[in-house]
Amino acid sequence: MTTVKKFISGFVIGAINILLGAGGGMLTVPLYKKMNMSQKEAQINAVATILPITIVSAFIYVKNGDVKISDSYIYLIPGLIGSIIGTFAIKKFSNNILSIIFSIFMVWAGLRLLFK
Amino acid sequence: MNSIIPIIAGFLSGLIGAMGFGGGGVLIIYLVIFAGTPQIVAQGINLIFFIPCAITATIIYLIKRQIKIKIILPVIAGGITGVISASYFFGFIKSEWLSTIFAIFLIVMGLSSIVKIIKVKSM
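Above: the input entities. Below: the structure tokens describing the complete assembly.
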């Protein structure tokens, strides 16, 4: 994949990252798999990719006053613990059954949000 | 105690996010559907929340030498450019529209994920 293509793909990922505050992984992982990374490699590099992008997005949200950093405090430490466990669980649990369960959950959540 | 639910939500969000599922939408879903947070605030919280988790994960992955810096650098460059560009062009979108867009995004991503898995399984 050319550098330009990578840049443009990143551009889309960044735009969605700030627009929706999420979703980067869902786009970045398939992108990296297209670049011949394995599922696990793609997930790992996706996290590393989305990190700087998210830092910029978060900075803009806070600067615009859309959110206060203190709003997130209660989630930070549990989230940290969860994600540390997650990085070690990534080998064991990244399989199809979990993916399907989670995808169904996402569709449910989307429908729920639409018809709230 | 009332704090226990946000703490569990935070823990699960970190766990699921680090395993690569769902692009980090779990916390937003919890915040908007169960905690009544406005969409834009929930998105902001999710972005902030992601950072320490991702820093920790990235450090671990860097130590294990699993990150392909040369490959991801152009993507990151594009990403940051996209963030800044989108912030100028889409700043006018209201919270209610955001919720709808986010919901559609969830449904599309969920469905395409299911289709992809079924395709792979039936090969």
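Note for the figure: Chain A has a mean pLDDT of 89.
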